[in-house]
Automatic annotation (TrEMBL):
GO terms for molecular function: DNA binding. It comes from the Bacteria. Gene3D superfamilies: lambda repressor-like DNA-binding domains (1.10.260.40). It comes from Streptomyces roseirectus. This is Helix-turn-helix domain-containing protein. It holds the Pfam family DUF5753. Residues 22-75 form the HTH cro/C1-type domain.
Length: 281
């Protein structure tokens, strides 16, 4: 049976409808993005990404837009529908994503790739294409991945996040070196965010308890910790407390062996210096 069309025929889902309404209200008000940014006090780039469906923003910016456009709480209602739309994630990832959205702290170990929370659009696109995504599904997954970063950039209540990455992650660049440079520069940018810590685990550490595993730990509001382990073939949500505790002990051991955040910054800067000059500059 073909998918049922929406009433308007314009919206592909709650996220698209929210983006369409943002643009519609701005055009109705006859203001440019630059003027809107100046008058509501929110970043122009972020407002542009919201109108293009790349990110949803937070409730505070949406409330300010409702006030500015005199739309009651229409935009906030559409935002809530978009935020809670689990169809933006593939079915097998939804249980994890629901937990991530509720987590009060996150920590990560990456053996093969930067975490989705720290990926640029260019890196996410390359990774998803390599995973077989294409067309509309590719764009939907890129948008979903980038939207998750809102938790780190929230100026009022950022979620504490620590990432330890194997040196191999940063020694394995994208084929597009311009996009790889942007990825490294983005890591330096997020190192300045409150609550974010990035550490590189040097090659010399050798084998350890999390080798060849990409793992995320999520602390929930009641203090419980859930883990998610992923390799190239599959992912597993781990809620058994004894297994989570064992993985967490292995993680703590790596944290003590990794470069400090300051040393990691210097390491990334050296990698940037080693890259060929950006031909666009």
């Amino acid at each position: 049976m073909p998918a049922r069309k929406t009433i308007t025929g314009r919206s592909g889902g709650p996220r698209a409808r929210f983006a369409q309404e943002l643009k519609k209200e701005r055009e109705r008000a006859k203001v440019t993005l630059r003027r809107l940014s100046r008058e509501v006090g929110w970043n122009e780039t972020m407002l542009n990404r919201m109108e293009n469906g790349i990110m949803l923003g937070g409730p505070d910016v949406v409330e300010d837009l409702d006030t500015y456009y005199k739309t009651g709480d229409k935009l906030l209602i559409l935002w809530e529908l978009a935020v809670t739309d689990k169809n933006r994630f593939k079915r097998q990832y939804r249980p994890y994503m629901e937990l991530e959205e509720k987590a009060v702290a996150l920590w990560h170990y990456g053996a093969t790739t930067p975490p989705g929370l720290l990926q640029t659009e260019g890196f996410a696109r390359a990774a998803l294409i390599a995973g077989g995504y294409e067309g509309e599904e590719l764009e939907r997954q890129i948008q979903a991945r980038l939207e998750r970063q809102r938790a780190l950039f929230d100026p009022e209540n950022p979620v504490p996040f620590r990432s330890i990455m194997s040196e191999a992650v940063l020694r394995n660049p994208l084929a597009d070196l311009v996009e790889w440079r942007k990825q490294l520069e983005f890591l330096l940018e997020v190192l300045d965010l409150p609550g974010v810590s990035i550490q590189v685990l040097p090659f010399g550490v050798g084998r350890h308890g999390l080798v060849n595993t990409n793992m995320m730990f999520l602390q929930m509001v009641d203090g419980t910790i859930v883990a998610y382990a992923e390799n190239d073939a599959q992912g597993e949500l781990i809620e058994d407390s004894s297994r989570v505790e064992a993985f967490n002990r292995a993680y703590d051991a790596l944290r003590d062996l990794a470069y400090s955040p300051a040393e990691t910054r210097r390491f990334i800067m050296r990698l940037l210096e080693e890259l060929p000059c950006d031909p666009s500059t």
